């Protein structure tokens, strides 16, 4: 038996409208959430048309050979940045004329694997073994309106198509759970002297990789409590269902990051010759959404962890893309530089309790954000509905102008020893308490 896709009812109207404009086909993305029992589709977004594609469609017979795979995967990468925790690109759709129906499924299969490859390349986290890896391929005939939904396992390159149920449902996200947190970031990333051309982007990603592991190992307090990951997220909240408030639940989450390594692991200090450093500082707002069908605590925490990691990684990518566009390729020599990371903003999805996000530089006007939502998500947004969620976060690039002198080496060694001492401070304090306790006992009994 194949998977079941519960689909927001408004998506059916959206796809029907697209089918009346097909010349000769249109592709797009399916956005939603996976769960062990079923998947939820909350939005469908068409691929932005290209001028070249429009010209090709006006000349010659209709064909799928002109399908621009790179353009579609780039769109998927851009859209994925705008999704909060818990939401992902669930698959792709195609609305095509009857004469293209025969080749449509092969084209969709190819797109599904290309999109997944593009998205997984950017991730700083790895999917768990129990996660759903099926992705949807939805094909609609523009003439008959016939809907065919199949799935492919993106973890298996040789995966064959499996049938799936496509069911529309109204108010799909009405009872979803929202989780939110603020994470204070202060990440110091050394730039190794051996790194060619001071590759800031590569070094930053390596530093974020290390930081992401700290987030994975953090403790999450949901509404002030540590909950067993296998319990239901809404356990104990059912008695509040009779109130007059909307059925959407919101949980405030605190993230407790471990300061040192686990007691069983040995700590080592390494001295490396560096050409400078990168410092990421600020407070980032994170959000995740979970379906209302008895969600588990581990599902909610996993979604929020990934949003924390994604939002910092994505805005660093956006910053480097902006620097390349405005300043050209990275220079060999650089001085002390301060850059402002784009701020996160949230925008509600029409007819849904879910909010999507985007990133705004300080000099960007509201109109530019509105244009991006129309282009990327095919969704008009009112300026008053855009909520900037956080203060400014910065990136500081600090060079070392000269090679380390003997004095600098001594200072570096002292700093390393101090760090080592801080890591083991708990053991030192515990030992001191034990010694004082033994002295106190001896004096007490000797009197």
Radius of gyration: 26 Å
Instruction: Indicate the mean pLDDT.
Output: 81
- Counting DSSP E segments of at least 2 residues, the number of strands comes to 17
Uncertain spans: 239-246, 402-447
SS-derived structural category: alpha+beta
Q: How is the biggest beta sheet arranged?
A: 8 strands, mixed
Order of helices and strands: EHEEHHEHEEEEEHEEEHEEEHEEHH
The number of distinct structural domains comes to 2
- Spatial gap, N to C terminus: 80 Å
Kindly state the percentage of residues in helix. Answer: 25-40%
Question: Based on CA inertia axes, which overall geometry fits?
Answer: globular
Record the strand order, biggest sheet: 7-6-5-4-2-3-1-8
Percent strand: 25-35%
Provide a count of the helices: 9
Family: Belongs to the ODR-4 family.
Protein name: Protein odr-4 homolog
InterPro entries: ODR-4-like
Organism: Sterrhoptilus dennistouni
